[in-house]
Design brief:
By secondary structure, this protein is of the alpha+beta class. Helix content is 18%, strand content 36%. Strands 17-10-11-12-9-13-16-15-14-18 form a ten-stranded mixed beta sheet, covered by helices on one side. An eight-stranded mixed beta sheet has the order 2-3-4-1-5-8-7-6. It starts with a strand and ends in a 10-residue tail after the last strand. Belongs to the extradiol ring-cleavage dioxygenase family.
């Protein structure tokens, strides 16, 4: 068995409380009653113990994904597979596993330098209702959403996640170069063993935050619209307006959260019931409509 879903993410912030306040007020998350004694904030989206770990640090950056495996046997098999391939694997301590609310976890780096954590045995949480009149985030067995990370060592990183972690390819998107003289942009979208169209995306350029974006999914267009209003009221920069993607059909918008973290907030993402019947796609346009981009210029 491969990766089931994206179970948690870790970010480092100079002010974790400010990020937690933003997540409650703008996103509709909750704050978990989980104290590690290090100033971290643990954020809830659903009945899991938490989904986002916001750690105290001297700079704002994305730290790691947390990928869930189905069993102790699947976890042990992945550790051995990685070691056999020459990947350096670090096993987490019992204390660090408890901080993540998992039975056991290990970590390694992909060929582009991204830290990857993987685990089994997520501990039980408690019932949770989102804030801001959001009925529910689309999570559960599909995990917290999806993650797109910088992968300048693109082909090697693709091989790492497909051959070792068992991700399947959903869509291979090619876009024009971001600047004259640069190569084409490529975003490789990959699915885990759940119906969400993609759980992981690889973008072939670096990013100083260590993150391209995280996706948060809700159940209605109104919940997306109300969040857009809250983002504007908070003075956060929307770098892509409302639109519908052509591969996963998500209706969404994008903005920069505190610390420069790119977030996508959307609904109606495609789900695939049987991946054995799915044919991966190759696309050259990211959207059916909308998603006009507006990135801040240097100095703004």
């Amino acid at each position: 068995m491969g990766i089931e879903n994206l179970g948690y993410v870790r970010m480092q912030m100079t002010d974790p409380q400010a990020w937690a306040d933003f997540a409650v007020d703008v996103l509709g998350f909750g704050i978990a009653d989980h104290d590690d004694g290090k100033g971290s904030k643990y954020l809830r989206m659903d009945d899991a113990p938490f989904r986002y770990i916001i750690e105290q640090g001297d700079e704002d950056k994305f730290v790691s994904s947390g990928l869930q495996l189905s069993s102790a046997e699947a976890y042990a098999a992945l550790v051995e597979k990685l070691k056999a391939a020459g990947v350096q694997v670090e096993t987490g301590s019992d204390e660090e596993a408890a901080r993540r609310a998992v039975t056991a976890f290990s970590s390694c780096h992909d060929p582009s330098g991204n830290l990857v954590e993987f685990y089994h045995g997520r501990l039980d949480g408690s019932p949770f209702t989102p804030n801001n009149n959001i009925k529910a985030f689309i999570t559960g067995d599909m995990g917290l959403g999806h993650l797109v990370i910088p992968a300048p060592e693109n082909e090697a990183t693709e091989e790492f996640y497909t051959s070792l972690f068992g991700f399947g390819i959903s869509d291979d998107l090619t876009l024009p170069p971001p600047a004259e003289g640069a190569p084409n942009q490529r975003v490789l979208f990959m699915h885990a063993e759940n119906p969400r169209h993609h759980t992981l995306g690889l973008y072939n350029f670096p990013n100083p935050t260590g993150l391209i974006h995280l996706m948060i999914e809700v159940g209605s267009i109104d919940e997306v619209g109300y969040c857009m209003d809250r983002v504007k009221k908070a003075g956060l920069h929307i770098f892509s307006d409302l639109g519908r993607h052509s591969n996963d059909e998500m209706v969404s918008f994008y903005f920069f959260a505190p610390g420069g973290m790119g977030l996508e907030f959307g609904f109606d993402g495609k789900q695939v019931a049987d991946w054995s019947q799915y044919t991966p796609t190759k696309t050259t346009s990211g959207d059916y409509w909308g998603h006009e981009y507006d990135f801040p210029q240097i100095g703004e």
